[in-house]
Amino acid sequence: MRLGKRGLRDIGLVAAALIVLVAPTFPAHAQEAVTRDDIIKRLSGLEATPDLNDAVPLKRPPIATELLELPRFMVEVQFDPDASTIRPESYQTLGRIADALCHSTLLRYGFLIVGRTDATGKREYNLTLSQKRADSIRDALVNTFKISSKRLQAVGLGEEQLQDAARPAAAINQQVQVVTVAKPL
User: Fold this and answer.
1) What is the DSSP letter of 19?
2) Which residues of the chain form beta strands (DSSP E)?
């Protein structure tokens, strides 16, 4: 299936309980500085538009494995505990992401903002929270940094495919992922 405007939109709506952003319950700390050039390098080079399943989040097969085959990068975004409000210390990171998405190399690609959570709490709640956080990142990129909404979709994966399965409550399981999912528009 090819992801057009509606397809990208539907992924977020259908996956209304999915995304790669999760609120840490630990105190805020300095984020590792990711550069615009790092982001550009990691997100460029999409060879084929992926066929991502549009099923209802709680009934769809896992898509995290498919995302691993696409150009992507992960970054930590801080949220208020148990909420989708982005903490102020994360806006510099979002600004770097926006700068990269506006670079000529990536300007015509479409991207998926993926939110995840750790494995604490109920699956349904984690899916909903991760979707809300992914939506918050997308909204900040669109409204604050003026990235075209046509280029961004948000999906929450909850606790699907933990980054550190041996430590299901680890903070690394809450990182945000940006994935290139659409060839130049």
Assistant:
1) B
2) 72-75, 110-115, 152-156, 176-182
